[in-house]
Design goal:
The chain is of the alpha/beta class. The protein is built from twelve helices and twelve strands.
Amino acid sequence: MFQSSKLMNSLKIGELEPKIPIIQGGMSVGISLSGLASSVANEGGIGIIGASGIGMLEPDFNTNYREANQRALRKEIRKAREMTDGIIGVNIMVAASDFDDLVMVAVDEGADLLFIGAGLPLRCPKILSPEAVKKVLNKIVPIVSSARAAKIIFEYWTKKYNHVPDALVVEGPLAGGHLGFKKEQIDNPNYSLDKILTEVISTIKPFEKQFNKHIPIIVAGGIYTGADIYKYMQLGAQAVQMATRFVATHECDASIKFKEAYVKCKKEDIIIIDSPVGLPGRAIKNNFLEKVAAGVKIPFECPWRCLKSCDFRKVPYCIDLALTNAKKGLLDEGFVFAGTNAYRVNEIVSVKTLFENLLEEYKQAASE
């Protein structure tokens, strides 16, 4: 692990203080599990396990979806704990049908943080006691794509719990995977990360004053170099969340074919798709997606009901199955989600090397 530069802003989320203000984005359906998350934590960042579809490698996943997910998440958190003393978080989608189950497992297993996206985290699982609710709230870091969403969360938590989050992730439209934007907003400068960050900072200032605490902002979506990190810290962020860069690491839990899709892709291969869950998504173009775009329906049975917003009777393919196949390297039967900068990846490196490169780039940008 390299030493944190004094030039980098210090990050504190509640009682947690990572040495390096870099959070590895939580990539679900088996891309960021204990291997990647623990490696990032060992370098002083925050490693995140993606919880959605995590039971994909359990033998009873097709027949016992919820319990398989819970069991697998429990295993991965425990494995990560065996490999690191660093900070481990879990990414959980509000849109997941087993959201409550996954939150309970993550809290029970002692995950340090819960990064909650794909919906607004306005409520805690109903079975929690008042004491347990506070414990959960202290771990939640919401992921938002607008100042409006941040305001809704902060106002609701203030009224309902007399509490506000200890940190917030602001994700812009250049991210990979499902996006919290309409298609026409993705390339609109009015929805750029720079602009959204400024608006969110202004929105939460009254809450910082009311609760007498600093609430760090973590930016995500299109962060690729150490110079990018420096830029956003100058704009008021205290940390960054990066996913694309961590896919192309030896420690990433995806198959080698998944990682090689990043190394081989060109700029024009990064496309916006219509996901079956009703959101636009950013992915790497391949034969599977070209067939879907041509109107081919990929037959499937849905034993899972994994996402609340997915009408499995009408969609052209199963998103969870496609992403499961991609994780395994079966790219003819699935596809790879990726951020807008995935085409810039030209080699697979270790997490340690990636951190060293990012810090060097940061130092260079700060000295200019």
